[in-house]
Amino acid sequence: QVQLVESGGGLVQAGGSLRLSCAASGRTSSNNAMGWFRQAPGKEREFVAGSSWNGGYTSYGSSVTGRFTISRDRAKNTIYLQMASLKPEDTALYYCAIGRGAASMDINSVTRWGQGTQVTVSS
Predict the structure, then answer these.
(1) pLDDT-based confidence at 29, cuts 50/70/90?
(2) Secondary element (H or E) of residue 22
(3) For 9-27, how does the pLDDT look when each residue is reduced to its tens digit (9 = 90+)?
(4) Are 37 and 115 in contact (CB under 8 A)?
(5) What is the pLDDT of residue 6?
(6) Which residues, other chains included, contact 96 with Cβ-Cβ below 8 Å and sequence gap of 6+?
(7) What does the buried/exposed string (b/e) look like for 6-32 if buried means 16 or more CB atoms within 10 Å of the residue's CB?
(8) Cys bridge to 64: 8, 23, 38, 68, which one at CB 3.0-4.6 A?
């Protein structure tokens, strides 16, 4: 079984930066995309960024394009989300995910979720 463990969340001022990490353990498929979703209280979970684990293709949600960058460390079996120019509206619980298909992963393609890491951006 695959487990995903996120880390790196915290409290940051608007305009600041954070780097989230997601370490994958267990068996993973080369066909799987990995990425990030987020969910704020009272809102639906939304796609943030995705990556074709081995292919190097990436995709971003419209609200974070140009500010967030997803990357990977193959040796550590870990993906990262570098978040810059953070805004209060970025405040959410961020989930690492594995899913079927492309880097632009649909929420319905997700087969495994991490436990989430909280990101809070103060004004």
Answers:
(1) low
(2) strand 18-25
(3) 999 999 999 999 999 998 7
(4) no
(5) 96
(6) 4, 5, 6, 20, 22, 34, 35, 36, 79, 113, 114
(7) bebbeebeeeeebebbbbbeeebeeeb
(8) 68
The one-letter amino acid code at 32 reads N
> Across-strand partners of 33?
52, 99
Integer Cα distance of 100 and 67 in angstroms: 25
Burial class for 96, CB neighbours closer than 10 Å (0-12, 13-18, 19+): buried
Element at 67 (helix H, strand E): none
3-class SS of residue 108: helix
Distance between CA 33 and CA 44 in Å, rounded? 21
